[in-house]
Amino acid sequence: MKSICIFAGSSFGNDFEYVEKARELGKIMAENGFSIVYGGSKNGLMGEIANEVLSHDGEVVGIMPRGLIKGENVHSQLTKLIEVDTMHERKAKMSELADGYIALPGGLGTFEELFEVLCWAQIGIHHKPIGVLNVNGYYDPLLNLINHCIQKGFSGEIHKSIISSSSDPETLLSLMVNYVPKEIEYKWNHQNVSLKKEK
């Protein structure tokens, strides 16, 4: 694993530790030879981790739809900026270039990106490690929701193994480097459930 896709807020949030941990993760990644692929913005936590990787001579690849380049204030110091036409192309390119994924604190866009790669892992599209930097319990509600989903029978217990979580950047990277995908039986292959309305 050499290249990690970063999902993160384009805002800073209201807890300065979000910024501190983003910077810490960026520093550790660069020092250990990891490059990052991300949305290309200079704003918020996205910008903070990019700045930190760059300041420690790491590689940062930004991917941004042409229509957002002005609005999202594209980072001007990136190792490489890739322009695409749509948000779908952006996410596809990020995934193509990444060996793993880490979500920092963020908003709806971050959740959407995270759940998409979790879904892809669940159905076998990829077997890459996925982690969340759970700063001050930011992702506790999301992890609890996944547990609730399992308890209610919409996901299997094994699906918890898809996501790694830690509040410590170094620990999270270690979990991802040592991640071994488990054999997952796809639920629709063995369900015998009729979706036809009974008469």
Describe the structure.
This protein has 199 residues and is an alpha/beta fold. The chain has a single domain (3-189), classed as Rossmann fold. 38% of the residues lie in helices and 16% in strands. The protein contains six helices and seven strands, in the order E-H-E-H-E-E-H-E-H-E-H-E-H. The protein has helices at 16-31, 44-55, 87-97, 108-122, 140-151, 169-177; strands at residues 3-7, 35-38, 60-65, 80-84, 100-103, 130-133, 163-166. The protein has a seven-stranded parallel β-sheet, with helices on both faces. Helix 1 runs parallel beside helix 2 (44-55). The longest helix has 16 residues, at 16-31. The model is unreliable at 189-199 (pLDDT under 50).
Keywords:
6 helices; Rossmann fold; alpha/beta; 7 strands; 16% strand; globular; 199 residues; disordered C terminus
Reconstruct the topology from this structure.
Layout: E1 3-7, H1 16-31, E2 35-38, H2 44-55, E3 60-65, E4 80-84, H3 87-97, E5 100-103, H4 108-122, E6 130-133, H5 140-151, E7 163-166, H6 169-177
Parallel strand pairs: 1-2, 1-5, 2-3, 3-4, 5-6, 6-7
Helix pairs in contact: 1-2
